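Writing this down once: the sequence line spells out the residues, with the fold written below as integer tokens. I am pasting one below:
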Amino acid sequence: MKELNLFSLPFLMPDYAAIDALTQGEVGQDVFRVLEKQGVVPLAWGENGFREVTNSKRPIRTPADMKGLKFRVVGSPLFNDTFTALGANPTQMSWADAQPALASGAVDGQENPLTIFTAAKLHTIGQKNVTLWGYVADPLIYVVNRDVWSSWTPEDQKCVRDAAVVAGKENIKLARAGLIPPDDSTVKTVEGYGVNVVRLTPDERKAFVAATRPVYEKWTKTVGPDLVKKAETAVANRKP
């Protein structure tokens, strides 16, 4: 769905405040309206978090460091375009296939939130380098089938919606735990595994933004220039 691809535009969201500005504002409401046309009732936003890049070969601090590395990416041409623009070799595969591919060295790296890194123990299958670049974010949406929703009483609908809002807030809290200074305990946990964690400076991140700008502009046409402009304005005006 093109409106949801908005959240995969590379380097649109520089921080968590930017995610909130989109999901909790007019852009989020626009996305909900699109979903309503697809036969579901959107209830609340959740979150997986920013997707970070890891690999078995070397620390990544510049776009040049990506050159020639083979990365497992999710099944989206937008992800393919982003990694290709950085000089890497993206390959789409399921997560079930990705883990043995990482272990064997068939692929060099992958991109996922750090919560996935720790849960899957990726440091045990060669992923010794992590770069915190926050190139895209993974928001989640709690939905209910419209026919099922219509079969419930207004009282039951309210209970389910209220529960989804509470669950979404808790999900977001857990997804961000230990990742926002001064509490960076999750990052320190990863470093404790013997993993090299690179924290990009603002100028270093700008180099990745510049390298992927053609991808951003290409996909803006697909997502919709008006929606992207609205998102850019919301991010620019976000509250810290």
Summary: The chain has one domain: 4-231.
